[in-house]
Amino acid sequence: MRIGIISDIHANLEALEAVLEALQKAGCDTYVCLGDVVGYGAQPNECCDLIRRVASATILGNHDAAVAGRMDYSYYRAPARQALDWHARILSRENLAWLRSLPYTHEVEDVAFCHGSPAAIEDFEYVFVVDQVRELSVRLHDFKPVTFIGHSHLCKSFSFDAASAEEVLHTRFRCEPDRRYIITAGSVGQPRDYDSRACCAVYDTETRRFEYHRVAYDIESAARKIFASDLAVAFGKRLFLGV
What is the C-alpha separation between 96 and 164, in angstroms, rounded? Predict the structure, then answer.
């Protein structure tokens, strides 16, 4: 089975439509969303509607949880709080109910999906560096062979076993059966690795092969909608830079 993996859409409809088209061309059998459908962008309802139609499973992200009233976000920076408040006001009743219902995790065969670190799924912790993964080795058997996460908006992949952990510095690779993997799927709607193209990924459960996909989309249109809304201008400007 070929799984199309999307994460951190952040209400960017142009980017979402572009990656779904690319994943369809890549022959994906199903789609899993790792969360943060909302936040930052100008089209939260449209993105929720589309994900509800196409994804076989969607995981709760921290921005989803905030909008749905499932977490305190008073400590977020003012522009992010403003965006979440605005999304909470304009989201349809159906989409708010859907966000309130989303699970923290999902599993398919020997693959797990969550938004942040699998070590504390309700805390939405980041996984940035190999030292964080090394700490998980003592809990090796608590994790599925492959875990996909989002949250950081980066393309970061790590492998580990009971004795070692390392970053996988490739955009396509095979997951070895004797090691565990934590793979960050990048961001559809707000990449932060200085590549402004939307990011998604494909994992084949039979061959155990993983691959990042970068997809060009109409950034100007997405940014223009942000500029015309009640959102911070910076959320549109950063789309051009991939930061």
Answer: 42
d(CA 96, CA 92): 6
CA geometry: angle 12, 94, 59, nearest 5 deg: 60
C-beta atoms surrounding 186 within 10 Å? 29
Strand-pair category, 57-58 with 105-108: unpaired
pTM of the predicted structure, to 2 decimals: 0.97
d(CA 34, CA 105): 9
Q: Tell me the C-alpha to C-alpha distance, in Å, between residue 67 and each of 5, 13, 57, 78, 129.
A: 23, 18, 19, 15, 29
User: Pseudo-torsion of CA 144, 23, 54, 193, nearest 10°?
Assistant: 70
- CATH (residue range 2-241): 3.60.21.10
Instruction: Give the sign of the dihedral formed by CA 29, CA 32, CA 38, CA 39.
Output: negative
CB 151 within 8 A of CB 145: no
Q: Write down the pLDDT at residue 186.
A: 98
Pairing label, strands 2-6, 30-33: parallel
The model's pLDDT over 36-72, given as tens digits with 9 standing for 90+, comes to 999 999 999 999 999 999 999 999 999 999 999 999 9
Paired strand residues for 58: 33
Domain-wise residue ranges, the chain: 2-241
